[in-house]
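Hi R.,

Here's the chain you asked about this morning:
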Amino acid sequence: MGLLDDVFKGNIGTGLAIGIGAAVLGPVILPVLSGAAKPLVKAAIKSGILLYEKGKEVYAEMGEVVEDLVAEARAEIAEVHNEAAEALQPEGETSAS
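And the predicted structure, written out as tokens:
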């Protein structure tokens, strides 16, 4: 912590040492970190793809259920409409439909 305090207080020598150390160690540390992070990122991408595919399946199934419900509702409406039309006709007459 004292090292960072010196940098922020204006100790130029310490700031330069940190900068040079980062420049020298950066090329060594970054490949190691990226090598460790690559499998994690790859796993996250795979999980995202799997979730997307599963979401598409669920959405398609929900669409089928809604279509079935709409078809049933339309059939019930048509049935009620036909019953009402038959009830309004005088006895002995048949409907043209």
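The chain has a mean pLDDT of 82.

Let me know if you need anything else.
M.
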